From TrEMBL:
<keyword id="KW-0210">Decarboxylase</keyword>
<comment type="function">
    <text>Catalyzes two sequential steps in the biosynthesis of coenzyme A. In the first step cysteine is conjugated to 4'-phosphopantothenate to form 4-phosphopantothenoylcysteine. In the second step the latter compound is decarboxylated to form 4'-phosphopantotheine.</text>
</comment>
<keyword id="KW-0285">Flavoprotein</keyword>
<feature type="domain" description="DNA/pantothenate metabolism flavoprotein C-terminal">
    <location>
        <begin position="10"/>
        <end position="233"/>
    </location>
</feature>
<protein>
    <recommendedName>
        <fullName>Coenzyme A biosynthesis bifunctional protein CoaBC</fullName>
        <ecNumber>4.1.1.36</ecNumber>
        <ecNumber>6.3.2.5</ecNumber>
    </recommendedName>
</protein>
<feature type="binding site">
    <location>
        <position position="112"/>
    </location>
    <ligand>
        <name>CTP</name>
    </ligand>
</feature>
<feature type="binding site">
    <location>
        <begin position="133"/>
        <end position="136"/>
    </location>
    <ligand>
        <name>CTP</name>
    </ligand>
</feature>
<keyword id="KW-0511">Multifunctional enzyme</keyword>
<dbReference type="GO" id="GO:0016874">
    <property type="term" value="F:ligase activity"/>
</dbReference>
<feature type="binding site">
    <location>
        <position position="181"/>
    </location>
    <ligand>
        <name>CTP</name>
    </ligand>
</feature>
<keyword id="KW-0288">FMN</keyword>
<feature type="binding site">
    <location>
        <position position="159"/>
    </location>
    <ligand>
        <name>CTP</name>
    </ligand>
</feature>
<comment type="function">
    <text>Catalyzes two steps in the biosynthesis of coenzyme A. In the first step cysteine is conjugated to 4'-phosphopantothenate to form 4-phosphopantothenoylcysteine, in the latter compound is decarboxylated to form 4'-phosphopantotheine.</text>
</comment>
<comment type="similarity">
    <text>In the C-terminal section; belongs to the PPC synthetase family.</text>
</comment>
<feature type="binding site">
    <location>
        <position position="177"/>
    </location>
    <ligand>
        <name>CTP</name>
    </ligand>
</feature>
<keyword id="KW-0460">Magnesium</keyword>
<comment type="pathway">
    <text>Cofactor biosynthesis; coenzyme A biosynthesis; CoA from (R)-pantothenate: step 2/5.</text>
</comment>
């Protein structure tokens, strides 16, 4: 049963959740995108609202009405717009559930690219990509650059969709990513064979920077995994 906003363990806390896959513009009508549905970010937003937080959802995808009615929804398209919203907010809890494109087209055509471009040129256009900013890493750096006690109390959660490979299993890659990103918690989803993207059930491993312990949740509905993630973040606030 959701408790009143004034009461839950996240009452008085600001939470920013990113959701969905970024859309990187090619021209006014086309973009490069990915298959992220936004469902995990929506579930995290709802779980944080359940615990009394003031939630901002920065999303590329449209949340269901029951989520939209309880959080502030900010719609963005590309990674750079998402970055701006995240860095200006400086929330108590940041959860980067969005699938941020690692690259974007180096240039956005100002008018629609035609099949025949130039004067009778029927060759295929070449789209050159450049690296997008790493929003999660920048948010961590922004917080850590501030020495004040309020900044030090902020909690940052990253997500990772991982498969095992010749170098190591899912947890090996997740531990390495947690260290690389510098966030406090990493939620590692096992992917491959059509699992996770767009599905309602998944398995997640919750890793903490300050402990070798791993909590595995699932296979379970995303709402259940979201509640576990938000509970863990709330417990970090309580114990610090
Ligand atoms: N992320 C981000 N900005 C990016 C890319 C990723 O903020 N440009 C965030 C994602 O929202 C997620 C976390 O970083 O919370 C991990 O994303 P992932 O794609 O797994 O990490 P990468 O560092 O991009 O590594 P990889 O080469 O595995 O894609
Ligand atoms: Ca990536």
């Amino acid at each position: 049963v959701p408790v009143a906003r004034e009461q839950g363990p996240l009452a008085g806390r600001t939470v920013l959740v990113t959701a969905g896959g970024t859309r990187e513009a090619i021209d006014p009508v086309r973009y490069l995108g990915n298959r992220s549905s936004g469902k995990m970010g929506f579930a995290i937003s709802a779980a944080a609202a359940d615990l009394g937080a003031k939630v901002t959802l920065v999303t590329t995808a449209t949340p269901p009405a029951d989520v939209a009615s309880r959080v502030d929804v900010v719609t963005v398209e590309g990674a750079r717009a998402m970055r701006e919203k995240v860095l200006e907010a400086e929330p108590d809890l940041l959860v980067m559930a969005a699938a941020v494109a690692d690259f974007r087209p180096s240039e956005v055509a100002t008018s629609k690219i035609k099949k025949t471009h130039g004067s009778g040129d029927d060759s295929a256009p070449v789209i050159t990509l450049v690296r997008n900013p790493d929003i999660l890493a920048e948010a961590v750096a922004q917080r850590d650059a501030k020495a004040d006690s309020e900044a030090r109390r902020r909690v940052i959660v990253g997500f990772a969709a991982e498969t095992g490979d010749a170098d190591g299993d899912v947890l090996f890659h997740a531990r390495a990513k947690l260290a690389r990103k510098g966030c406090d918690v990493l939620v590692a989803n096992e992917v491959g064979d059509g699992v996770t993207f767009g599905q309602d059930e998944s398995t997640a491993h919750l890793l903490r920077a300050d402990s070798d312990e791993v909590v595995t949740v699932g296979p379970a509905p995303k709402s259940h995994i979201a509640a576990a993630v938000v509970d863990l973040a709330a417990s970090i606030f309580t114990t610090q």
